[in-house]
Write a structure and sequence with these properties.
Helix content is 16%, strand content 34%. The chain has 259 residues and is an alpha+beta fold. It has one domain. An eight-stranded antiparallel barrel has the order 1-2-3-4-5-6-8-9. A hairpin with a 7-residue loop joins strand 5 and strand 6. The protein starts with a helix and ends in a 16-residue tail after the last helix.
């Protein structure tokens, strides 16, 4: 009996540690990468309100997966509100959907870093060259979202994220879509895990705008996100049907499933 319990707790520990490690490696990679400067700007820029960055993108192109079999996950931030007390904290209310199971969640986004990008893009064909943009930046941090315990298959999302923005000529914060027409464009990347309240299940869980971070062989698209054929049975078939303009296909990604 003792050996069984020991094996169970060790297995749970390694699952938890792996998920946290992936999130930590992702964050460190962004901070230490070649695209961002090493100067920390959190002290200077933290008092801006970044809440609109997280709700800008149409949910039909917010893609996510849960588990090592890349089950299709949908995440919708219904409201994001900046704390009036803590300048680096945001309160989030939203919903998640896997298969036909929908759960509401509440939680926080906490900003830990703000860095400037070394090179400011001028867009395709220099379309933003003379618009007075003062720079492109990234905010990084951590999140904790708790699903409603009274709902089926509920748990907690934890991990890290990176979101990109730029400052325009009028000192306004804007969602960074300067290169949105480029292949591989993405923003609002979340990397972490989901753990059931019962503690018996811990799954990798990543999502993002237009592309999914650390998605392995799930995404085989060149210009935009396209799920690998071998994972279509895990909730991705409807997306393929929509892209193929199949009039008889159900379109869960085009409907407001969270209402």
């Amino acid at each position: 009996m003792k050996n069984t319990l020991f094996t169970f707790f060790m297995a749970f520990y390694f699952l938890f540690a792996f998920g946290q490690k992936e999130a930590q490696i992702f964050k460190a990679k962004q901070l230490q990468g070649s695209e961002l400067t090493s100067s920390e700007l959190k002290g200077q820029l933290i008092y801006f309100d970044f809440s609109k960055l997280f709700t800008k993108t149409d949910n039909s192109v917010v893609y996510g997966f849960i588990g090592n079999t890349y089950e299709h996950l949908r995440v919708k931030f219904i409201s994001v509100t900046k704390s009036k007390v803590l300048a680096n904290e945001y309160y989030v209310y939203g919903k998640s959907m896997v298969k036909n199971n929908i759960c509401e969640f509440k939680g926080t986004i906490t900003i830990s870093n703000i860095r400037k990008r070394k090179v400011t893009s001028t867009g395709v064909d220099d379309m933003y060259k003379n618009t007075g943009i003062k720079g492109q930046f990234s905010i990084l941090g951590d999140y904790l979202f708790s699903e409603n315990k009274n709902q089926s298959h509920s748990g907690k999302f934890t991990g890290t994220f990176i979101s990109n923005f730029y400052i325009d000529k009028d000192e306004n914060i804007k969602y960074d879509d300067l290169d949105s027409v480029s292949d591989g464009f993405t923003n609002n990347r979340f990397v972490g895990e989901w753990r059931s309240y019962k503690g018996k299940l811990t799954e990798r869980c990543n999502w993002g705008d237009f592309r999914i971070p650390n998605s392995g062989d799930l995404d085989v698209g060149a210009g935009d996100f396209s799920p690998n054929e071998k994972y279509l049975k895990n909730g991705w078939q409807s997306l393929v049907d929509v892209k193929a303009s199949n009039k008889d296909a159900k379109k869960p990604d085009d409907t407001q499933w969270w209402k």
